[in-house]
Amino acid sequence: MRLKNFILSCLAVVAALSVNAQEVEKTENIFKPHWYLQGQIGAQYTLGEISFGDLISPNAQIGVGYNFNKVLGARFSVNAWQSKAGWDTEGNNYEWKWKYVAPTLDVTANLSNLICGYNPNRILNIGVFAGIGANIAFDNGEAGDVNGELKSLHKYSDDFQPLSYLWDGTKTRVMGRAGITADCRINDVISVGLELQATTLNDHYNSKRAKNADWYFNALLGVKINLGKTHTTRVVPAVVPVKEVERVVEKVVYKECTPDTVYVVEPLRRDIFFTISSTKIVPDEMKKVKDIADYLNKYPKATVKITGYADKGTGNAKINASLGEKRAQAVVDALVKEFGIPASRIKADSKGDTEQPFKEEILNRVSICIAE
């Protein structure tokens, strides 16, 4: 029986230590720059005058990309297969198709990480891209057949071309494109996604003169394979274990030739730390808020200035400005609602990530409070 009780006691101690460790520590994901490969297949719609379904063509793309940071990256891809054109003239529909290859360099941006912060375990990531490339078109014989048919039908002279910009051989044209992506994470290596592209080039692309730019639109489904690790993790304190030993010190100064005593009250500083992306004051930090309230209650003429901060390594300037403001306001609300301090005795400010009061990054998730 004694042995049993001893074992149970040991297990209880281990469990308690484990719980305490879990309360003190948490993991933080750190982005790692990495390469990826991509393969996609889908369909193209080339802007034209005949029905939508008659202008659909097969399309495919392969690419390799590099993510420099959690938001920005670059991608080189080759998009290829087939384009179509159509002309509705004098009640008759004419259509023709040709082939092309389009190598393109894009700049990419992960909107999910930009707006919501970095999370490698997020299921759905939305992104945008824009780039420039070369469209290398060839095999335009069907356009020549349509042009010849129109000339024969209307008995045009040999010099007149119904398709004013008819071309043959191989033509290379500068193109620009932009689009949006939606990638669904399967695991750290593989994701599947949908990509929508809009591409523009000069009016000569489809052989028909329209006095405006030619366009085609691609919808692609594909697989992305990350090469190497996309992130690492590190253990950080859930509540920064900064123990402050500060006391309100009263100094007694005696003026010469007078019995009056002057009390000089030292300012009180408390640093209220927060966890990553959080504005919630945890119980250990709430004790520091109480210290401030006790000081203000003891010295009725004292006021407190609260400045909120965010660490520069997380989020972006806009998010961090809001985060710093909310962290300062959290302390204000606690003083007013929990401890009954008048709001007129409190001044709040936010520096966001424009200032970093501490050298260690995680310590800058803080509201610094100075009462005097």
The protein's oligomeric status is single chain
Instruction: Identify the strand order in the major beta sheet.
Output: 2-3-4-5-6-7-8-9
Assigned CATH class of the largest domain: Mainly Beta
Report the CATH topology name of the largest domain: Porin
Strand segment count: 16
How much strand?
35-45%
Structural class: alpha+beta
Report the principal-axis shape. Answer: elongated
User: Could you list the spans in which at least 5 consecutive residues all have pLDDT below 50?
Assistant: 13-24, 240-259
Give me the strand/helix succession. HEEEEEHEHEEEEEEEHEHEE
Q: What is the mean pLDDT?
A: 86
Considering DSSP H and I runs of 4 or more, what fraction of the residues is helical? Answer: 10-25%
Our count of domains comes out at 2
Number of helices: 5
Termini separation comes to 61 Å
What's the main sheet like? 8 strands, antiparallel, barrel
- Which architecture name of the largest domain does CATH use? Beta Barrel
Radius of gyration, whole Å: 34 Å
Description of the structure:
22% of the residues lie in helices and 45% in strands. With 372 residues, it is an alpha+beta fold. It has two domains: 29-232, Porin (Beta Barrel), CATH 2.40.160; 239-371, OmpA-like domain (60s Ribosomal Protein L30, Chain: A, 2-Layer Sandwich). The strands form four sheets. It has an eight-stranded antiparallel beta barrel. A hairpin with a 4-residue loop joins strand 7 (171-185) and strand 8. The longest helix is centred in the first third of the chain and has 23 residues, at 2-24. It starts with a helix and ends with a strand. Residues 13-24 and 240-259 have low confidence and may be disordered.
